[in-house]
Known about the structure:
Layout: E1 2-4, E2 12-13, E3 29-32, H1 40-48, E4 58-60, H2 79-88, H3 103-112, E5 122-123, E6 131-132, H4 134-139, H5 145-154, E7 158-168, E8 178-183, E9 192-194, E10 197-200, E11 206-208, H6 209-212, E12 213-214, E13 217-219, E14 226-227, E15 234-235, E16 241-243, E17 249-250, E18 254-259, E19 265-266, E20 273-281, H7 283-291, H8 313-326, E21 332-343, H9 351-368, E22 374-378, E23 382-388, H10 392-413, E24 415-425, H11 435-445
Parallel strand pairs: 3-4
Antiparallel strand pairs: 1-2, 1-3, 5-6, 7-20, 8-18, 9-16, 10-11, 10-15, 12-13, 13-14, 16-17, 18-19, 21-23, 21-24, 22-23
Helix pairs in contact: 3-7, 9-10
Amino acid sequence: MWLLYSPSISSVHLASVHDLPSQAGGVTGIWLAREDGRDLASQLLEIRRQPSHAFLPVFVDADLPDAVSALGDGVAMDLPEAVARAADWRPIPSRLPVASPSAAIALARYLYLRPFVALTPCRDYKAHQAYRYPLAECFSEGPQPESLVDVLVNRGWLDRGHIIDRLRKCESCQSTHLNYVDICPACSGLNIKKSLFIHCFTCSHVALQEAFLAGESLVCPKCHARLRHIGVDYNRPIEQIACGDCNSAFSEAKVVARCLACDACADPEGLPVMNVASYTLSDAGRLAAIEGIASRWYVGAPAAPNVSPPVAFAESLEWMTSLARRHETSWFSLVCVSIRLSGRSSELTGKEKLAQVLDAFVGLVREQIRDTDLLARMDGGLIWIALPYTDKVGGLALIEKMNAMAIHQGSLEELSIGVDCRIYSCEDIPDGVSIASFLHSLGESSLGVADSGIIW
Length: 456
């Protein structure tokens, strides 16, 4: 195992994962070689479980099995190639917040750093639900890694991709290891088998064919009539299944689903259905990965003593509106910004490119606003900025700066960045209308971003 640094700094060889330093400062990546004599897949799993190195690019000198292929970042046949690839790897993990993330944030952050990697399941008959997500296992803090995937899906951090399989699971323990068993509908016994029955037309007696055999002839055991012609003297009833426990005869057995994990039985038609699918990181997941908070939005007000990221932007604005209406000197301006991109080629456009440009653009905006200003970024390229004690003239000055930054940033990214801005004050907010409703209506009508995924 080799710790990779910039091309000007020599790489460092380590004997095992346990020798990794507590901090990854200056490390640009890791290279695993088969010559170390250890299984590459197991080493990868150990590295991804190390909080200090989990997000670094890891290269190997051989192809990986499908079950762990998403844990690596490609093949590098020798050390110089690995150093070069690590130096060119973007984005850089060190640009993310240094605080220890939760399991959900860590998984979202790993996918954020690898926009072309999908959270893909692999089939494993030993797994509780027949499929498992190896990537989620690296970051899961509990005994059931699949629950971590459910958390990200429920938060809207993952977009579902290709459906790989559809399974029924036990209502009691959620296991998909079910045995579908035919049982007797009368006594629920398992001792059933297909048999031949005969129905005598003379006395209507029905019994197993063995009871009618008399040498090479068929004779009714009840009325002793000789049965020569089927359809004339006798026929075969539709009941062709017999129970060895209660001697019942029936045409169709009852089917029950018996869980092999907890032994619970249920009607197969009533079992819950589980879709097994691959997932990619959504816009909300990207924001959570960047900011390290469990939300679809974030508030950037590091110096405001009474405002912290978990406080909703709408609630903060509600408070500012109440102050403005109570005290005439407590005015504020609200700037609404919608960012759109148009690239010179299709390769430069798309969801990931938009997200990268937005990250850079929002960083520039933060440099222009004050510590007491509030910034909320939503899905779809929508930004709200609340400017306390600032009239519309001050808001227009900020808009001019953003337009200039958009032109400059666009020239760097080889894209045309359009910034649509609207400015509002507390007088523009109707009485009796909630701030959340006001912001939502502005987002739809004024800027035409009804599909931007804003949630209040």
